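Before the break, one more example. Copy the sequence into your notebook; we will annotate it together after we see the structure.
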Amino acid sequence: MNLEHFIAKRLITAKDHKSSISAPIIKIAIAAIALGIIMMIVSVATGIGLQQKIRQKVSAFNGHIIISAFNGNQSDVSTDPISIHQKFYPKFKSVQGISHIQAVATKLGIIRTESAFEGITYKGVGKDYKWDYIKEYLVSGTIPNLQSSLNQEVVISEYLTNRLNLKLGDSFNTFFVDEGQSKMPKSRRFKIVGIYNSGFQEFDAAFVLGDIRHLQKINNWRPDQIGSFEVFVDDFTKINKKGDEVYNETSSILNSQTIVEKYYYIFDWLKLFDFNIIVILIIMIVVSTINMVVALLVLILERTQMIGILKSMGSSNWSIRKIFLYNAFYLIVRGLFWGNLIGLGLLLIQKYFGIIKLNPESYYVNVAPVEINILYILGLNICTIAICLIVLLIPSYIITKISPAKTIRFN
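Here is what the structure looks like once it is written out:
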């Protein structure tokens, strides 16, 4: 039998424990632990969730790595065509960790209706286009049928349909300006078969997705000429490394750029969330630890007479310290239990009901996203327990200074 654990358990379950002087302080310590773990779980889940969601949205419209001609690399518009016949297409076999590669082209245009007009970026895609991300954002309709002959089907954002007073099934004219200033704009009529809403206004206000063959005809390109390649990697955390490898494997007339480089202002902003999360974690652990230190000191002072009796019976200082550390461990676990229960409950409510809304102009999302990662949650709980117990070794040292002769007479 573990004597220290047995005594600690008796102290916790004793009837006079709830009515003791330390009872309110213990409750405050448990509440502080619970509140701390709630804040830590929520901050990590929302911070990581927001980062992943924004990364997903940026890659949905750009891929992870963009391969294009040097002259057209600084613009979203495909100005110089490149051949589709490349050694890395359709399978990028020379670089490990590449999951998909697709050929696209983009061109600026103006949508004109009877009541309004909007500038857009028409993105031409082919049979190899990965529609998975766009399907996730579809609010109505379906994706264009690119497997058959050339057609006028496009997917447009809900933002643009509202501004242009369009709806699913409507047709509209789009005018594309040619490179030569003296040339007349070329017109194409498209039909809306799908409406998406990514919540990323920078893209929703611009992109219309349709058949790449329209742009090939408008630009007088051959069927084997495209604007750029979009490459997807398996592990986003390795995007910089894979970007360098892709650059080394492309020919000298091509350039590659990761979305981290292209949209540096977005990803620099996302890095601030890591700092904010770390600050919140440190503050919550410090607050929880301070409350536990106070609670432990009160417990020790309240049981001074018991400590003196145990010492007089031959118990070592470390043995008695373990009794109070077991007691503290019980309080920490109790606080963590309620904290995890409430924290996970709040995250699940947000995940499935989207209670908290965000301004897409500021945060690039409509609803605060959450990422519930069990490993992160377990890590937070283990670190909280470990840090609290290590810090509690210091106040428990006061037990070594208690004299049995004085404490047995202590009232």
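The CA atoms of residues 308 and 403 lie 6 Å apart. The first strand starts at residue 65 and ends at 69. Try to locate both features in your own notes.
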